[in-house]
Every structure is written in structure tokens, then in C-alpha cells.
Amino acid sequence: MLHIRLGELRQVDPMSDDLGRSFVGYRAGMTDAQVYEANRGCWRLGARAQDERYAIFSFDGIVRQALEISSVEAAPKRSMRSVVYGRVLGPGHHVHDTYVGRPAPESRGRNPISYVPDTPVPVGHETFHVGTHGAGFGDPVSNREVELVAMSYASGVYAVDGWIVEDVSALNLGWDITATKGPAVRHIEVKGVAGPNPKVLVTRNELRAAGHDLDWLLVVVTDALTGPRLHEYGPAQIRRLAVPLAYEVDLRGA
To answer: pTM score > 0.85 for this model?
Structure first.
């Protein structure tokens, strides 16, 4: 797991910043989206970072955010620096619940980058898992590989068709891609499956988006790891076919 220590919030010149940001660092009161956008780059990361699944951001000795890494890419202007892309994790995910709001793992020296062992996946998560930012059947590690392929494939298909594609998966909007072509807009939730059957799980947030957003669209990439095929489904289809599989019950106030 990648551990990045943040400094205090400070202004930067968006004209010279690799990511066009106006500020970097951390200050109390920032939203998850602001923390992610301000601090996903640009870092001096070694080859080991490519193999990490999760990242945590800490400030003043406390972990402020946890991230599931989708990719680590070279910064646009400085090839020796890297940008971390991924999904912000929320309550209910074992990494978030283990680290966020708690003392940060010990890291020595002035280097803001360090590595800590991944936390084990709790028993039962291997067969069925639902979190704030995603849901799936099977092993979460294998699902992540399928998800990354599906996102890449779907983005490519829409880009080739003339859409301007923006990855917003980290912002927990209820969809993964905002695609625009002239006046047309699509809010695309991407799901990937390893087999030929388009059977997927959707989160409550995604189903909510399907209920009120006319631009929302579900894209399922089947056979993602062998011969990807893209299927599109409108919100009415999702609302009609969705079947609840589980409910979360908080009994602390019972």
C-alpha cells in the first residue's frame, strides 16, 4: 500500500502545474473530491508503485483519505514524476475503515512516500462485496483487473466514436465516465464481467442516478479479459430489472 504524507494547503500556479491545479496539500474541511484532485500528483514514485492496489493520504499524523489505485501514470510535463489515478474509498470498505481518521502508519525521514503492507480482505468479501463506490461478485482482486480493462475498453470505444471522455470514477457521482459530443452528454456507469453474461451488481448510488438522471447509461463489457464486447442499457431497463440482494442494517440504535 502506498502511503503519501501531505503538506499544508498552498497555492500553485495552474499554468505551470502538471495537472492545472490552483492548490495542493490538505486543510480541514476539504471534500473527498478536493483532497483527491489536489494530491493525486505529482510524486516521485519508484517502480514498486505500479504494483500497489491502494494508497492512503495522511496529514499531521492522521490518515485523511484512502484510494483504490486504477493506474499510476507519468506526469504530463515531468516524466520523472507520477500521477496516481483511482477511486476514493468510503465507509464500508475495509481499507477506509482500517485507516481513515486513525493515526497514520509510521514513516521516517523527509520523503513523503512510503509503503505499508496491505490489509487482508475480511472473510466473506471473496464471494460478494458491496461498497460505497462499487459492487461485484467473486474475488475483489480479480474484479479490479476486469474493471480496469472494462474502463479502458469503454473509454476507447466512445473516444473513437467522437466523444470527449472524462474519467470521474473517483468522485462517487453514480457513474464512471462523463462523455460529451457537441450538445449531447452521457453519464456512463461502466461494469466489466469476465464471462459472456451481462450480470452485474449496482450500488444504491448508481441506482439512484439511474432513477433521476436521463443522461445516465449503463455500459457492461462482457468477456473483458478475452474478447471485450460492449453493451448499453438505459436507466429504465436497470430500474425494471434490478433485484435487491442484500440490505445493510445498523442495529446500534435498536
So the answer is: no
